[in-house]
Amino acid sequence: MAFPYKHVVLIGATSGVGKGMAESLVESGVKVTAVGRRQDRLNEFVNKYGKDKADGAVFDIAEYQKAQQFAADIMEKSRDIDCLFLNAGIQRNWDLAELENIDLEEFNSEMTINYTSFVALVQAFLPYLKNQKPASIIFTGSNIAIVPASTLPNYSASKTALNVFTLCLREQLKVAGSHVKVIEISGPPVQTELHDYMGAETGRKMGMPLEDFTKLVMDGFYAGHDQIVIGSILDPTTFNEIVNKRRTAFEKLAEIIRVATKTHKG
Known about the structure:
InterPro entries: NAD(P)-bd_dom_sf, Sc_DH/Rdtase_CS, SDR_fam. By secondary structure, this protein is α/β, with parallel strands linked by helices. About 50% of the residues lie in helices and about 15% in strands.
């Protein structure tokens, strides 16, 4: 199966997993509008692949209040965009045993960037995607959405929130009869800049090589999966069993709620 989307707008494309996925998609024949905060890196991406295959747009997702205007500008320029790929994020260690010393504004900014900004971007782009066929929204999540890392309480919580939002968005779009597909990537640690807070030399050696990760993600796209689970620090068999049982339980509860709601309305 081929990747069915022709033009992807990829948020967080100037570094790490986002950059790796942007390059993999372009090299597979998909046009990518790369989005990030650093104009110089966006220019490098466009120059490398050419304007027929790549474009760039500066946007800081922390300023999520500007998402509506950003989406309007992007879609006015490129009316053929049929896929929103949400990938950006930050990761920080927090010592909750010293919670009284934590700056709450800084603490909350991690949730804003990793979760709230994604919700705002989905809200902004979804009306346009509903007019494209096929169309999809892709989220880069994490294994620790399911099994949190004790030293990363806020990052884990943000990824759990994103996972819940993804499940509910997929379910509600399906019930509404929408053709927009919701895809979630659940990955292990990957060797990127995300872990630079540990020290660049140590952090960038942590996890799966980026090239291996992007290949497995592309394989998941080609297979048509809406949930692409890659690796785990835990035993993969055990982890996949937890993920599958959780999704099955979610879908059963969703069916119970649908029936109860229909009965109540009737």
